[in-house]
Structure formats: C-alpha cells, structure tokens
Design goal:
heterodimer; A: 376 residues; alpha/beta; eight-stranded mixed sheet; four-stranded antiparallel sheet; globular; disordered C terminus; B: 290 residues; mainly alpha; MetI-like fold; elongated; disordered N terminus; cell membrane (chain B); BP-dependent_transpt_permease (chain B)
C-alpha cells in the first residue's frame, strides 16, 4: 500500500513549541513546553492519528506541522522542502495544499457569510475561475459532502452541528489540498453523527487521494480510521505504532493505561485496568527523566534520572511500518498491562453473566449474534 | 448544541429577522425609535412644519408667554420659539450624526488595525487613544472647538474627534475577541490576505456593539453640540440651535422661563429617544445568533 522508500509528505524534525507563560515577579517567565523535540514522518496516503489527553500537545503539533504557528525550534518539511525557509509567496501557495477541519463546527464558520461564500472563497482565492464556475464548483462540493446546493444561500447558524462540520469539510476541500488535518474533527458532534462524518472523511480521502493527520482523543474513531497512531504525553511522542499493533499490544505504560481507560462493552473481554493516579504534570516544569514517571505504575529509579529515547522496537524500521516506543523497560512490560485479561469480579457475577447469555440466546435463536462493528 | 436539523423550508432565510423580532418586542426600544423618527421627520420637513420664519424678529412680541398664536412663546427678539425649535432640530441631529460619523470613520479603522495586527502598531495606537481618553469627553470637545474656532462645522469636528477614542477602544476589544475565533484561524490557514480577513471576517462580526455605541454616542453628541452652542462655540446666531437657545434663555430664567423650558425639553426627548433606541439595539443584537 505504501512504498517504504517514498519520501514522506510531511515531516517534523525536532519540532519544539514553547509558549510564554505567566510572568513571575522575579526571574524569567516560565515557558509552557507544549511540544518538545518531536520528530514525525507522515507518509503520503496514510491516516496518522495523534492521541493523548488534553495538554499533551497534540493539537499544537498538528498546527505546527501545518505552518499555522511558528515553531520555537525545529523544522517542518513538506515534500522534502523546509517550510520555514520558503519565500512568502510559495509559503502562501503551500497553505492551499494543507487543509484543516476544526473541532468545533459552531466556531469554525464565519457566521456572517453564506455557505456558498464559505465554500467558494478558497476557490476564489485560486483565482482562475469565473463567477459561474465558482458557484458550480461550490455546489458540487456541497453535494459531495451530503448537502443540497440550494443550502448555499443560507447562513451557518441555520444548520446542525453535523451539517456544519460537512460545510467545514467542503471548505477545506475547496482549495484542493493534498493533506488534511482533522483537529478532533468529530469530538464535538453527537455520537450518531460522528460515524457519518468519519465515513465521509474516509470516502473523501480515497476519492481525492488525501493524506489525513487526525488529532483525536476518541480511541474508537482512531481505531476505525487510522493506519498509524502516535501517542503523545507532555509534548513528546511516547509510542508510534500501526493501529492494530497498538490496540492489540500497547508497549508503553502510558499507551496501555490510555487504552485500558476506554470502556469495553463486553464483560468477557474486559482487560485489567492500569489506573493512572494524579493529573498530567504541568508542561511548564516537566518532570526530569521519563516524563511519565510520576504516574507510571512500573516506575523504577532509572526512570527518574534518564529520559528514554523513542527507539525502534519492531517491524524493520519505522519507515516500513515498524513501531517505536520511548520506555526503558518496554520489553519487560509488554503484555503486563492492558494485554492481560481481567478476572471476572466475582463468582456470582460469572453466574449472572452465564445466565444472561443463555437467556438472550434462547430469546433470539434465529438472529445472528450482533457483530461488533467498528465503533463510531 | 440544541440545534436540530430543520426541514429545508421551515427555516427563515435571513438571520436579520430574528434580531428585528427581538427589537420589536422591546416596547421602550420601539418608543425610542418612534421619537427618533419623529425628530428626523421634523428636521427634514422643518420649512413645512414651522409656523413662522425662525429668524424673523418682531419687537412687538418680545418675550411673550405661550399663546394660541405662539404655542411655545417668543424669545427676547420676538422670534417664534416653536419655529426655532423645529429648525434647531436640524442643527442638533446633523451635529449628532456627522460628529458620530467622524468618530466612527477614524475610530473603527484605528481599532481594527490596532487589534488585528497587535505588537508595536497596537502599542502606539493604544497609547494615543488612551491619552485622548484621559481627557473628559466634553472638556476635550470644548478645547478642540475653541481651538478650531466657533462654527457648527468645527463643533462637529471637535465632537467627532473627542468621541473617536471610545470607538477605537471598543473596536479593538471586539477585534481581540473575534480574532480568537476558529474561523479567523481558518481564514489564515487557507492563505487569505489580511485586508480581506479584516473586512470580511473581523469587521462584520465585531460590528454589533459598535452600532449600539454609535446610537448612544449620537445622544452624547447632541448634548455636546448643545453645550458647545451654549458656550458660543457651535451654531452661530442668528441661526437656531437648541444649545444656543438655552444660552440666550439663561439670562431670562425668571422673566421668561418658557424660553429655556422648550429647548431643554427637546434636548431631553431627543437624547432619551436615542438612548432607548441604542439600549434596544443592544438587547436585540446581543444574544449570539445561531
């Protein structure tokens, strides 16, 4: 599917973003280290997900990679060219190739512009189409995302959240991008609508040959739509792996805890929980050594001293779909966390469960067992 | 998130209608609008409404109390006060509207540039605006009016310049709020030029409070014009204005109180009308649509 030798479409090299923090009375203001030395390659045609809890820097990393904010240090390479070093005109042209779909469909559309204008504006910006052609193209885009062309005369507030997100997607597509950043594209939507928008994104990806970079915290969405996942913690990537490998056997203790925190509807498949204690530490003063050591259930003395590097652990090199993890003891911990099945809470519970299963089988013998499809 | 997908035809076409309905439900606001409309009509139709020539003196009718022939009485030169009030409405409304237009014309662009670009442009413009704001509005207007010389036109310029910093600061604050919205980042993300973003994205979304402030500022400008005219810095005699009528009337407060009561009441009514209108607009435009 993806040639290993191909150049990545987008690449972050030791990317760092510090935000100026609150000024103190004495001394220098503490910087918030939102993203701290992240290197990441996005392959052409893949869907790469960035996950992590709030404050992990995943949104900031996405924005940095789209040149929406200047990095404090490090570089972004688009198709091998250093974005920060491009002349202004080329940089603006590049903006068209990188689209963004925002999280909140209620804040991401200009309330004073009609939908036709919202979708038509990026086309107008390209500047090579007549007015009538622009309208036709905007209508075609609206139809493509599942809206009616006559919706173009209305204003954003007349639409529901899901419809607005479709408008946002149509606008993002209008500049004919090569890569689309979805900044939690469905997390503000109703669950019933999430699946529709995810499916729409997948269809469009195939149709327009897009590369998707998805920032998300909904693990179901990620499992369904992404090829690879980068797990972030306190501004750094702690694990990078193909999606199935990560979900089946997370290596980093944080990834294990993150996956274990997702509710599992089947009591038989429920896994042992690694409970994380405390909050994510402040990004102004990240802990020394491994950043996760303050909350890691497997912490050892060396973790407090030495920061583990993101090292390749399997699969013949990162470029060939291998995985990488930043943990000193990943080899010993593998399978110890989220992989292990939890014992059923009590014998009484097991009896009740068996009874329930027998009953439901008897009640509907003809019906096939509900297939566990991809969660929305 | 209570938004629901309505069937296509059930939705009103324009967003403006909702604000209008809210405005019409507010009785005080409608009353204000009616008063303002009335004054505008009087000012426009002054020659048709005024029973006498406002400049015609009559030494047989000096300081006559209100009567059937002269409803509001006559002034110290025997001129009909009602006619002078009617023509004075022109000066007052004109001064109110033009000086606010001047204030908007300078203040809003200053606020837009200052808020949108930030950094040193913002620092410089904000300091200038703050320096102007540190002077009380009326004191500044009088000082500028005295500096420019007494005439209605100069009074308008003086009032406009004095009201400008309020608009600059209000606009800047609005721009800062709007600038944080996702759609501004989205507009930058697709590479739209700054000028376009300011005119199509920032200004329309920052406008509502500015419109409200402008209505309220007209009321303030009417008072300021009256004050300047009262001090002899605005409308020059013999042309009538409410402020200059009060100026003359103050010498006859005991002998001819009607000379001061009617222009004072006119100022009061016009200012109240604009204030009610402005408050109503604020309430109607405030709830975020959508």
């Amino acid at each position: 599917m993806i040639l290993s030798g191909e150049r990545p479409i987008l690449e972050a090299v030791a990317l760092t973003k510090h935000f100026a923090g609150r000024r103190r009375l004495f001394g220098r203001p503490a910087a918030v280290r939102a993203v701290d030395g992240v290197s990441l390659r996005v392959r052409r045609g893949e869907t790469l997900a960035l996950v992590g809890e709030s404050g992990s820097g995943k949104s900031t990393l996405g924005r940095l990679m789209l040149d929406l904010m200047p990095p404090t240090a490090g570089d972004v390479l688009y198709a091998g060219r250093n974005v920060g070093a491009l002349p202004a005109a080329e940089r603006r042209a590049l903006r068209r190739e990188l689209g963004i779909v925002f999280q909140d469909p209620f804040a991401s559309l200009n309330p004073r512009m009609s939908v036709a204008d919202i979708v038509g504006e990026p086309i107008w910006l390209q500047g090579d189409l007549s007015r009538a052609d622009r309208r036709a193209e905007a209508s075609a885009l609206l139809r493509r995302v599942g809206l009616r062309p006559e919706h173009g005369d209305r204003y954003p507030h007349e639409f529901s959240g899901g419809q607005r997100q479709r408008i946002g997607i149509a606008r993002a597509l209008a500049s004919r991008p090569k890569l689309l950043l979805g900044d939690e594209p469905v997390s503000a939507l109703d669950v019933s609508v999430q699946a529709q928008v995810v499916n729409l994104l997948e269809d469009l990806k195939a149709e327009f040959g897009l590369t998707l970079l998805v920032v998300a915290h909904g693990l179901g969405v990620i499992r369904h739509m992404s090829d690879r996942v980068a797990v972030m913690y306190l501004g750094q990537i702690v694990e990078l792996a193909p999606v199935d490998a990560l979900f089946d056997d997370p290596l980093h203790p944080y990834a294990q805890a993150l996956l274990a925190s997702a509710p599992n509807p089947s009591p038989r498949a429920r896994k042992a929980r690694v409970l994380l204690e405390g909050d994510i530490p402040s990004a102004t003063r990240p802990p020394p050594g491994c950043r996760f050591h303050t909350r890691c259930p497997h912490v050892r003395p060396v973790c407090r001293e030495l920061q583990p590097a993101l090292e390749e652990v399997a699969g013949g090199g990162l470029a060939a779909g291998g995985r990488a993890v930043a943990c000193h003891f990943w080899a010993e911990l593998a399978g110890a966390g989220a992989g292990a099945r939890a014992a059923l809470p009590s014998p009484a519970f097991a009896r009740r469960l068996a009874l329930f299963e027998a009953r439901s089988k008897a009640a509907a013998p003809a019906e096939p067992a509900p297939s566990r499809g991809p969660a929305p | 998130m209570t938004d629901v997908a309505l069937p296509a035809r059930a939705v009103p076409r324009r967003p403006r209608s909702r604000g209008l309905a809210a405005f019409l439900r507010n009785r005080a606001a409608v009353a204000g609008a009616v008063v303002v409309a009335l004054f505008v009509a009087v000012a426009v139709l002054a020659p048709l409404i005024a029973p006498y020539d406002p400049l015609k003196t009559n030494f047989l009718l000096i300081r006559k109390a209100p009567s059937a022939a002269h409803w509001f009485g006559t002034d110290d030169l025997g001129r009909d006060i009602l006619s002078r009030l009617v023509f004075g409405a022109r000066a007052s409304l004109l001064a109110g509207c033009i000086s606010v237009a001047i204030a908007l014309g300078i203040g809003v662009p200053v606020g837009l540039v200052s808020g949108y670009f930030g950094r040193w442009i913002d620092a410089v413009l904000s300091r200038v605006v703050e320096a102007l704001l540190s002077c009380p509005f009326l004191v500044l207007a009088i000082a500028l009016g005295a500096f420019l010389g007494p005439s209605l036109g100069n009074a308008m310029i003086a009032i406009g310049l004095s009201a400008m910093p309020i608009f600059a600061r209000l606009t800047r604050g609005q721009v800062l709020a709007v600038k944080a919205e996702d759609y501004i980042e989205g507009a930058r993300a697709i590479g739209l030029p700054d000028r376009w973003i300011i005119l199509r994205y920032v200004l329309p979304n920052a406008l509502a409070p500015i419109v409200v402030q402008a209505t309220l500022a007209i009321a303030g400008a009417i008072i300021a014009e009256a004050s300047l005219s009262f001090l002899g810095l605005g409308q020059q005699p013999p042309a009538p204005s409410w402020g200059s009528m009060l100026n003359t009337a103050k010498n006859f407060l005991d002998a001819a109180p009607w000379m001061s009561i009617s222009p004072g009441a006119a100022i009061f009514a016009a200012v109240l009308g604009f204030n009610l209108l402005g408050d109503g607009l604020r309430d109607a435009l405030d709830p975020k649509e959508g």
